[in-house]
């Protein structure tokens, strides 16, 4: 899960990374209560799960408490790319001498941690890579190891960062690496990592992406997950241990299946026939009739969905359970069309149940046949 | 040590006293797998389905001369159990759990390589040599003996494939779930030398998907070292960038790394036949064996 | 370096191993000052670098302060195997239900740590191994790893130690492993590790042997090294960075050479000719005339030595320096006979110097010839 | 990657700016060794004897394509320097320092094996291929080219041997100091396959000594895999039990483990000719080559 800036900042503080003080406000009352706590000039930044907030006016400066309240309220009232700004983050405006980039992330190919550093920063790392490839250094680190001094020195030597910053830079690297390892991060990034007018290295802004599968170890982070989840259907699905995947905005089909591979295969075949899937839902293993009903309800509640493709290859999952689930969901589904492919345990019993339902359910034999039926349905 | 599971496999089930562990032990025994020991800390001295249970893998190894272990333990305990198995010297460790923390898998991946252990999974259905033995939870009734070796990141796509193969009378030598998580213990490229050397395997099937570089690394290996025909399927061609498709590993980076297009191009350049879907894949196979 | 019992006990306390209180006394005054601090009944144990103190009367019990002072003084006046008892260690007399054995040491063959446990203890581990081989379990541990719970459980299961002791036993194993790793031990042993009448596991007596090469990390231990060094010549030699090796008590020859391999080769050839080396001194590299002189003085100060075999194969060491050192040492050596073999840099100059000395110096060409000359000398 | 040091060796000297490092760099350059880089943290950017100095091994490797490193660093810094070299991917790491803490060597021994690095020493004189190159501090003038491969725990016994060999006109293909400390990075048994495969080596000499099990493990390997004649010398036959003979590794356990008697018996049983001393060893060699 990607943390919002203020939450990343909180982690930086917790792991003693050098960064300026920050305050959060969600309302005018909270803004007012910050009086005396904020150092001016200050920066007010919208906290939203999307990029481009600067262009949208989501970053502003305040010279005093009055400006803070005026501009803060202003930002709290904004929407950025359709997302409401529920929270603002206020920090010191720092005098910047140099902007740099530092991150730790995974290298899937080598199955190692990779440290990425550039003495050029402040913009996206891909932009730096295009403009100054020679100013980016990447070093692989073995997952079980600490970050060694020589790795840090190598990064400095390669990019020409002055050795007078050795101790401060080592400190920042080690602390950010601590965040990366201890918080089970997919990405721990400081951008920009700045040198201020007093030659101090400071983490000005950061991105943290934490491995969802590790959240059982990080309960304090776990509770923020729902809060920042932008898709209510995904939230709804998670409560039933389903995985809801938004695919393409412009589609009208939803795929309900058991297993990630099967979902991808279904989407691929559907796309090949010129149709567009807008969402998919993975049931996981051993779905009961009751759970099938909930799954269908969730995907159908997206008004764009007019057709559901149910593709079940049952091993432990029994086809008659699936069919009963579909039956009991019918009254909630309205005009939504169903194309159903059942295979595996109790297939015949399942098909009998489906045939008994007084509704437009296309039954298919096999995945390819299912997609063909779906194409026919679309022509209707 | 081959990674194949067969008549010579003497299997430990870690987590044998759990619901899943007991259920699948029964299934595996029924299929003919020699399950020689179970391990559950604190349950040593008991028995499950006639299989002796030990507190530690070390003792199970000593008492039974086991040569493989399959882990039916929840993802949050997977690291500890797999670590114990690797350190205790089990040469083949098969992990089932989905959703193991990535940092733990990174450590296990290298630990296994350093200790000379073959680690399979996580998020794997296991390994089956149809008609001989299985270690895992796969629905074994749809498999049948034959000469196609399959390795797959996805369980369901593998099931669909072998189901269709059976309809055409084509069987499998060995099927391996390399697993759908982001960091596999063993990769496609790690499996290839074994399939290439295996006398029972005539054709190799690789069921890959978007995300990561395993298919590209396999292509590199195939180009240099594999003489047997390889047929590949890449699922997820139409998945949106930056979104996981359920498998933690099935995610195309925002910059396009791990895309199906690239994988298919590289595989084709290595002489691999690529299929559009499972039915197409099986049609290709029908023309080969 | 092997620590005396009281020092091992101090380490056990430092690493929070469960053990009873202990007090040390070196004099009657110190014994008196312990009044009120000792729990009775108590055990008084002589602290000497040798075994067999029990048989020699070096372990006694005291029921009260008066007995403590009487028996303590008594032990402090003893000599055990010629070694004076400079220090006694006083601990609680514990009611023992069961004596066990636990140690961590090196397995040179596998280059790993080995944990050795037996629920039988109190005597030497080799005796246990002979009497109850099935009651000893050995487990290898990778040097870079922590000690894992499963290793400890395995040791219990294999030896049949009741699982009701699991937590306490884990605690003792982990703490002793901490001592072993953190103190760079060659051996960390608890024997006996006891279960007392209250079913508590307690470390009753311990042996600690610390890697001499690690002492730069353990300054607090380093200062005890000289204190317990029993051989004054070894101490004298160490001040000059020489290594003095006592070989056989009954010999009359001392070997002075540069390099451990050369010393062993010399001793082997001398023994083969039926002669006996009593000591050897390794000069190390780059010896000066002044240092050679000191080396000869040290080995000659052992009254048993009547002949010194000097065997120098010079690379960086120059033979003329050696010869000058011998020359200046002559007046200190009295009747000690010298057989000298020089080889390498400036050999001729060195031989010239030696020939100029008005004394009984046999010159040899090669190691075998040197040993032959030594044999002739012995016949004189 | 052979562990031999020759014309193709591109050597890093770690600790090049120290007194010993500079002195022996000069000696090695004089002997024809390609010393391509030095490493001393904080001295990067300078030069020693025309050799560029870097702060890190990683940078030295990248800048010079080095394939070996020799460490002239004090024992208390050996662990850190060797660790850096191994992690940075240097395939051959030669350590000179005597008296490295045992626990540090235990870790390095396994780390090197796990990372596929050949670690030589500590307490080693290095490696020399007479007439070609040397990496270490050995007095190279006494060596001469020939077809005897020597591996030795002791520097002085090796010197004595090659000195006597020269008098008889017998030279060496490669001489390796495996080192006299208790835990060597590489053992006799590790060296044997290379000597067996080396076309320049006709006879293998093993100069061992009391303590440890390396000679026994070598005997096991020789019995199974070595076809070339092996001549061995075991020093320390008359050393007292439980006392180190100077080399930290040259110590017979109080229970007799590591005794010369046992080593000689096992070696003889493996078909190895054992010598009484260095002169006897060279006499045997004179009859062979």
Can you give a write-up of this model?
Chain A has 13 helices and 19 strands. Chain A is an alpha+beta fold and 380 residues long. In chain A, strand 8 (96-107) and strand 9 form a beta hairpin. In chain A, helix 5 crosses helix 6, helix 10 (289-300) runs parallel beside helix 11 and helix 11 (319-333) packs parallel to helix 12. Helices cover 35% and strands 23% of the residues of chain B. Chain B has a 7-stranded mixed beta sheet, sandwiched between helices. A 7-stranded mixed beta sheet of chain B has the order 9-8-11-10-12-13-14, with helices on both faces. The longest helix of chain B has 13 residues, at 19-31. The chains are: A alpha+beta (380), B alpha/beta (289). Chains in contact: A-B, A-D, B-C, C-D. At the A-B interface, strand 14, helix 9 and strand 16 of A face helix 4 and helix 5 of B.
Give keywords.
heterotetramer, A: 380 residues, alpha+beta, Dna Ligase, domain 1, D-amino Acid Aminotransferase, Chain A, domain 1, Rossmann fold, 7-stranded antiparallel sheet, 6-stranded mixed sheet, 19 strands, 27% strand, B: 289 residues, alpha/beta, 7-stranded mixed sheet, 9 helices, 14 strands
